[in-house]
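Researcher: Structure prediction, please.
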Amino acid sequence: MRAAPGPRWPFWIALAIGVAGFGAFWRWAQPEVPRAGKLYVADPFDDRLVVVDLASGKAGKAIKVGRLPHQLALAPDKRLYVAEAGSQSISVIDTRRDAVVHQRIVGEAPANAAHQKKGMKLVQEANSCKACHGMRVVGTLPASVAIGLDGKDLWITETRARRVSRLSPAELNTRDQVAMLGGELTPSQVIVHPKSGDLYVAARTYKGDMPTGPTGPNLKISADPEHAAASGVSALTAFDSVLHTVKGRLELPFAGAYAGVFAPDGQELYLACRGADRIAVIGLAPLRILRAYSVSPGPAGIALADKDTLVVASFNTDPGVVQFLDRKNGQVRQVLSVPANPAALAVHPTTGQIYVGCAGSDLVLEIDPRTRTVVRKLDVNAHASGLAVVD
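Model: Predicted structure follows.
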């Protein structure tokens, strides 16, 4: 006669403990990623870049730049370009010496009465509007910056002027300017295709304005400092690599198209729509919406965590939220609760470590993409409107 089977719950408890233990052991057994290189953090409140040594995690030298530095772009020759929204200028940083080697006004200064009185030749030769206007925010608000695929062109979005400008990286001369198609739209970001070099310009309805009076550490900002509209329309326009030919245009049903990243094979574009809490997945030939993923409020930063995973930073939350999504179906793989107002993202080109600027707490987080955990909190004492990593 067979004995009656005993209770099975001890087996399942033992199995669960074993699985959990194996997961902990796997994370512990992963080799530590060697830390090297420098992280550059744009600080718009103090008109500077904070340089962080990634080996030690310590903030060191501060590089003074133009008014309200916003986004950053690193060229193949390791020069760093800084879009300075408050002084209508671009600064070039030699990252080997951590020094400004060139600065110039984007486009032309208007021939208004004050400029004519000063002398237009003198005004046009100025490096930055900050030289005359001091702490006042003036000009066309150059906000985002991108480097062409071959490194021969520099692309600037000008928020107040509602246009994209093409500059020479060496002299910073303005070569071309293209106004956005569609009345009230202003460009948010130029996204360069990783294979063809074609340009994809995300644009949104523009409401509000940047501050125009004196600014400083006591400046009060809205919950959305870049003023991406919470309502309105967005569009994506595809240009050839020199802005001469419009290759396609797509109106989007989602407000606040703000930032984007291409799939590794260049077949899809993932566009963060800040006003609609969506990631729009865009097919390119022709431009069309393939699908859309819901995310936490105010997605402002997006990057590839690995070839199959998106990382999204949502600004309009406190505490902040960083999500990891399967790029093919939008399934949430991991959600991290982080300090307030995460937005700027950068990925280390060698180690793959992810850096997230939390503007509301003056911190930058270092995230290991393999474990999807925060491994360091870097105290940068900066608002972190833009990040760049130099290996």
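Model: The two ends are 72 Å apart (CA to CA).
Researcher: Thanks, that helps.
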